[in-house]
Amino acid sequence: SLGDVNGITITGSQTTIRNINVRRFSATGISISGSDVLSRDVTIRNVVSRLNGDSGLFVATATDSSILTISNSRFTNNGGSGISGSGEFDEVSIINVELSDNSYDGVSISSKLVTAQQISANNNGGAETFSSDDPGIGLEIDGATDVTIEDITTRDNTKENILIGGEPLTRSVTIYNASIKRSEDADVLRIESETE
How confident is the model at residue 66, as a pLDDT? Predict the structure, then answer.
């Protein structure tokens, strides 16, 4: 037995992945990380990552000046999250991306600045865990000071459809053209925001 196998594993910085289809790997579809040099600037375009045992895409960063750009892609039916990250990015852009039917969250990422446009994040969650941090958030953003979300459809996730918070507490959130259906066991939208 080969054990857990990622579809693609990349260690380094200045990474671009485009025009590929990754599916049915026992671990993560695409893993961009490493022990010595974690990724800095990452661009993902025209990628489909689905039916993998863990997350569709996992990206780790070791510096707060990293930029992550994901566009025209699908991360669906994965055993973990559609997109997950480790470390805090300086800027994340997610444009025209489907994040649906994943066992954990649609996307779970930490970044200071976040732009999410033309997002579909539906039917995420359902994995059994033994902690209080149950999965099933459509779009989870931690540590952001400024968030812009435009043209999003999110429904039927087992937890919040959109969760924005973490440290530092969010200062500016703009959401428009959103179609959000109520989650049964959680808030539709939760923002943990700084008050002055």
Answer: 84
The model's pLDDT over 109-158, given as tens digits with 9 standing for 90+, comes to: 988 899 999 999 999 997 765 454 668 999 999 888 899 999 999 999 98
Q: What is the 3-state secondary structure (H, E, C) of the chain?
A: CCCCCCCEEECCCCEEEEEEEEECCCCCCEEECCCCCCCCEEEEEEEEEECCCCCCEEEECCCCCCEEEEEEEEEECCCCCCEEEECCEEEEEEEEEECCCCCCCCEEEEEEEEEEEEEEEECCCCCCCCCCCCCCCCEEEECCCEEEEEEEEEECCCCCCEEEECCCCECEEEEEEEEECCCCCCCCEEECECCC
Q: What is the CA radius of gyration of the chain?
A: 15
Contact 53, 81 (CB under 8 A): no
Which residues, 6 or more positions from 163, have their beta carbon under 8 angstroms from its beta carbon? Answer: 137, 139, 140, 141, 190
**Cα–Cα dist 78/53, whole Å:** 6
Is the whole model's pTM more than 0.85, yes or no? yes
Measured between alpha carbons, how far is 97 from 113 in angstroms, rounded to an integer? 18
